[in-house]
Amino acid sequence: MRAQTLPAAAGWRWIGAGFMIFRRNPPVLSMLVIAYWFTLIFLNILPIIGALVASLVVPGLSVGLMQASRNLERGQPVGLQTLFGGLKENTRTLLALGALYLFCTIGILGVSALVDGGNMLHYMLANSRAERAQFEDADFTLPGLVVLLLLLPVLMAYWFAPVLAAWHRLPMAKSLFFSFIACWMNWRPFLTYSLGLLIVAGVLPGMLLGILLLLFPAAQSFITGIVSVPLLLIIAPAVFASFYASYRDIFGISEIV
């Protein structure tokens, strides 16, 4: 397993590649992303075990979206079975990755509770608006920074781990290790990639929404809707496809099916 070290500009190219892949079949990729979200939403509403099962299947579903992006780039067929087909590749390792990520996330939130007495944790776990309102005046700056600092290495280890486990049949420890090293070696392109995502998915839509609301203040709900729909149906699928582009450029295109 060998990762390439890429220049900072590669991060911008990943975003462009994501949109190029999306353009090959916009309806199908949008449909798969929506199916991904609805699957997780459905699992999370199940009592007791729903959230746990959702966490366990996220790596496999992520592999399915990566497979869909690879197929689109190669001109191969893509369907709903592509999304769920990722769950069949090295299943035990993918489930273990999901469980470990959940454990790490809970642990990091637990550490944040030591900083602010649990205010942010209670806010995130609140089931109603009334419960969240009790913590809206709390200062989340310090615990937020703690969570960000602790979560960053977890994200680095997890970024490529599912696809390395599925396509390269690596065990969990090796997939996490190679993912972390690859991200560490390519911190410059990942920095530009993060800035690019902030601009494409945050700043530009926010500016557009602000301008339209200033021009048409009476149509707030309608304008919010027409700005949100492209985010869901265009930008989000392109961002998922850009995940594949980052793997392709750093590790090369796997020929394992």
What does this structure look like?
By secondary structure, the protein is mainly α. The chain has one domain. The protein contains twelve helices and no strands. Helix 3 packs across helix 12 and helix 9 packs across helix 10.
What's the total number of strands?
Answer: 0
Principal-axis shape: globular
Number of helices: 12
Biggest beta-sheet profile: none
**Mean pLDDT figure:** 88
Domain tally: 1
Encode the helix/strand succession as letters. Answer: HHHHHHHHHHHH
Spatial extent as radius of gyration: 19 Å
Helix content range: over 70%
Portion of residues in beta strands equals under 5%
Class from secondary-structure proportions: mainly alpha
Distance between the termini: 17 Å
- Extract low-pLDDT stretches: none
Search tags:
257 residues
Q: How do the helices and strands line up, and which of them pair or pack?
A:
Blueprint (H helix, E strand, L loop, with lengths): L9 H15 L1 H20 L4 H25 L5 H6 L5 H26 L2 H7 L3 H5 L7 H19 L1 H7 L4 H14 L1 H29 L4 H32 L6
